[in-house]
Amino acid sequence: MNNLGIIDSYVTPNTPEIARTWPKDFVDFFKRIGRVKAVEGLPIKEMIKEMDRVGIEKVLLNAIDTQAFSIPNEVVGEIILQYPSRFFGCAMIEVTRKMGGVRELERLVKKYGFKAFKLIPSYLNLPPNDKIYFPYYSKCCELGLTVQVQVGRTNLPFLNEPGRPAYLEEVILFFPELKIIGSHIGYPWTDEMIVLAEKYENVYIDTACYNPSTFEDTFVNFLKGRGNKKVLLASDWPVAEFENYIKEFMDLHLSEETMVNILRDNACRAFHLT
Fold first, then answer.
1. Is residue 1 part of a domain?
2. Residue 56 belongs to a domain with what CATH number?
3. SS3 for 70?
4. Which of 33, 32, 37 shows the shortest CA–CA distance to 50?
């Protein structure tokens, strides 16, 4: 599988400069789980070496735009421009900027070639079917962007309820051509997310924030069956290590066809990659 050219669909850039800006809650979390590199940060060239060791060809880099913490879109965009064969990007904009934010999204896509747009509904306590998001969905359809929506619980002090996958169905019906990724599996509403992915052609699930060794039986069975073309490998690096995460995926003993889909082909379909 190391020759496959694995695509990791959820990574946060964490250079030493970025690591110095992590809020204390995040730093304490990284220390608690023994992720020293996450606390110290890792230069991009060293990160690429880690990717190469386990056969990762390309990763999706996430920008973050919240009042609590920010990894600017421009920082992510410049990394992509410097290493276009190794990285593609997911922009994030505070949707409360309304049409100003929509215009900014278009500017970022034209300048940096972002492939996706990120939403964290729990952060604003607004579920993804709130109409404040609809101008962004429309622009994503126009630009061919995939929407990455964090579903399920949040480890931050926000309400979990806006992350329920069921709220996505209205969006899916209103924008049937929009590719949507339910990021973070959807736990404790994993079954809701599975139903949407099974029911709708353009809906996918990524595995960010959950190690494969912790997947519930329902989700593993989904991977082995109809979900084999609907799930994207997403390590959530630097929370997880590339090597350990991929090893745990291999330990699920999925079929070769399923592994090829999850490790690469599904991401190509979901993000319009060649």
1. no
2. 3.20.20.140
3. strand
4. 37
